[in-house]
Amino acid sequence: MTDCIFCKIVQGEIPSRKAFEDDLVYAFHDIHPLRPTHLLVIPKRHIASLAEVGAEDEPVLGRMLSVAPRLAKEHGSPNGFRSIINTGQVGGQEVAHLHLHILGDTKPVGPMLERD
Ligand code: 5GP
Ligand code: ZN
Q1: Rounded to whole angstroms, how far apart are CA atoms 51 and 29?
Q2: What's the CA gap between 80 and 35, in Å, rounded?
C-alpha cells in the first residue's frame, strides 16, 4: 500500500524507533506513548485491520502475539503488559494497517477502558 504510513515505516521511508524485526513482523515504539512502554507490532505485509484477516494470516497473527512478551520485558515492562488491537471505527482504529499495541510499565498500567 503506497499511502499507508505503517507500510512506509516497514520500508524505512518514514523513520521509526525499531524494537524488533523478522521475516513476518516489525515492531517499533509508538510516537505518542501512552505508558512508559508503548510498542506497536505490525505485519510487514499490509493488512488493513483484524476485520480483514483470513486463515492465510494465521502465521503472522501468531508471530505478532508470540514476540510480544519478550519485547515487553526487553523494553521496560518486566512483570506483564497489556495488549490491545483496535479494529475499525467502533474499535477506534486510526491507522488502517493492523497493529498490536503493547503497553507496559513497572507498575500496573491501569483500567482497560474508562467506564461511561
Ligand atoms: P490506533 O488508534 O490506530 O490503534 O493507534 C495508532 C497508533 O499509531 C497511535 O498510538 C499513534 O500514536 C501511532 N502512530 C501514528 N503515526 C505514527 C508514526 O508515524 N510513527 C509511530 N511510531 N507511531 C505512530
Ligand atoms: Zn500498510
Answers
A1: 24
A2: 13
User: Rounded CA gap, 26 and 54, in Å?
Assistant: 20
Count Cβ atoms within 10 A of the Cβ of residue 96 and give its class: 0-12 exposed, 13-18 middle, 19 or more buried. middle
Listed by start position, the domains of the chain span 5-80+100-104
pLDDT in tens, 76-93: 999 999 999 999 999 999
How far is ligand 2, taken at its centre, from the CA of residue 107, in Å? 33
Q: Is the CB of 28 under 6 A from ligand 1?
A: yes
CATH number of 5-80+100-104: 3.30.428.10
